[in-house]
Amino acid sequence: MKILVATSEAVPFAKTGGLADVTGALPLVLKEKGHDVRLVLPEYTMTKKWLANNPQFAVKRIDGIDVPIKGISIKCIVQELKYKNITVYLIKNDDYFLRDELYGTRSGDYEDNAERFIFFSRAVLKMLRLKDWSPDVIHLNDWQTSTIPLFLKTVYKDDPFYSSIATILTIHNLGYQGVFNPSELELFSGVDPQEIFTMDRIEFYGKINLLKAGIIYADIVNTVSPTYAQEIQTSECGYGLDGVLKQRSHELYGIINGIDYDVWNPETDKEIPYHYNLDCLENKELNKLNLINYFHLETKKAAAMSLQPLPDEQIPLIGLVGRLAAQKGLDILAEIFESLLSMDIRLILLGSGEEKYHSLLQKIARKYRGKISVNFGYNEELAHRIYASADMFLMPSHYEPCGLGQLISLRYGTVPIIRKTGGLSDTIEEFDPLSGDGNGFTFTEYSGKSLLQAIKRACYIYQHKPDWQRCVVSGMKQDYSWSNSAIEYVKLYRKAVDKVRKFKG
Ligand code: ADP
Question: Which residue of 76, 98, 166, 258 shows the fewest CB atoms closer than 10 Å?
Answer without folding.
Answer: 98
